[in-house]
Amino acid sequence: MTPADLSLTVLHAVRRAVDDGALRVDVPPRVTVERARPGGSGEYASNIALTLARPAGRSALDVAGILQERLRDAPGLRDVEITGPGFLNFSLRRDAGAELVRAIREAGGAYGSSTALAGTRVRFAGPSDLTESRASVVTETVVRLLRMQGADAGFGGAERMHVRAGAYEVDALGVDAARWALLRPAPQDRPLDGPPLLVQHERNSLFRVRYAHSRVRRLLVNGGQLGLLPSYEDGADADVTFGAAASHPRTTELLGVLGDHPVVLLAAARHRAPDRVARHLEATADALLAFQHTVLPLGDEKPSAAHRSRLALAEAAGTVLAGGLSVLGISAPDRI
To answer: What HEC string does 47-113 produce?
Structure first.
């Protein structure tokens, strides 16, 4: 279950509570789900009960209890707890990691796309010279993000299809580094210094993200040489294997950032903030690079179902990295 799936599940619970008269409120258009914070429990949490309490004329704890009853048997959820003044905390089933990996594999580069902003129409005037401005690169990327979430987005007047980072930056850095230099900082911050982005070093965030993607491609090649292929088999054995692997902190961290990808893309579209995507790619790369050493057999270790599951998780991370870089208009090479 991805955060997007969980958000819809909670929204359906609200709708059922309204339909059966347990709650008298307008059903919200969406429900926000976030990673659980210190003091919470499980993997994810939502403040929907606190949001609905006042219009419902009830305490947040009462609203949370009503929703908890309608979420206990939801597919993909192992437990739903109430903490603090009325936060709903969600623990996912042990096979939730396998479900997430399968969802990424099926969606491919479209993982994270949604119809959340369907019906929204956005038009950007754009700067007068769209080929030489940082604003043009940011706006072009925001349009792509909005369209991925179902919005009708574009430029006023004639559609501008060829936007580049500026002649000087491209000539000096290349397209990929120039775009990262402009998109990675928050809008109020200065563009990144260009020359360090050309250095192949872990301090270079662009290199780290692209290198992580190339490591996934190499793991898949090396796994194939050992007769290992990413495993997505249904059934108890595959799920138990993946569930056991998910107990490792590095596996849990990687599953968490991959599950957050749809939420990050939607937030980046809503807030017109491509830098959120870049920061999330850095987190994904760091989690993958910490996890990579567990993927293939070491020494005399024999290939097993656990290795196939880990390879599947690494492949999913590579899909997310490539898809996120594509959103930013940056290439994801197989080898660096």
So the answer is: CHHHHHHHHHCCCHHHHHHHHHHHHCCCCCEEEEEEECCCEEEEEECCCHHHHHHHHHHHHHHHCCC
The reported pTM is 0.76
Q: Which two tokens stand for residue 241?
A: 């294997």
Given a contact cutoff of 8 angstroms between Cβ atoms, the answer to whether 258 and 284 are in contact is: yes
Kindly report the three-state secondary structure assignment for every residue of 69-88: HHHCCCCCEEEEEEECCCEE
Cross-strand bridge partners of residue 159? none
Distance separating alpha carbons of residues 97 and 258, to the nearest angstrom: 10
Residue with tokens 């004639």: 158
37-77 pLDDT, tens digit per residue, is 877 788 899 999 999 999 999 999 999 999 999 998 787 88
Band (pLDDT 50/70/90 cuts) for residue 130 is very low
Rounded to the nearest 5 percent, the helix, strand and coil shares of the chain are 55, 10, 35
- Who has greater pLDDT, 156 or 54? 54
Number of neighbouring beta carbons within 10 Å of residue 223: 23
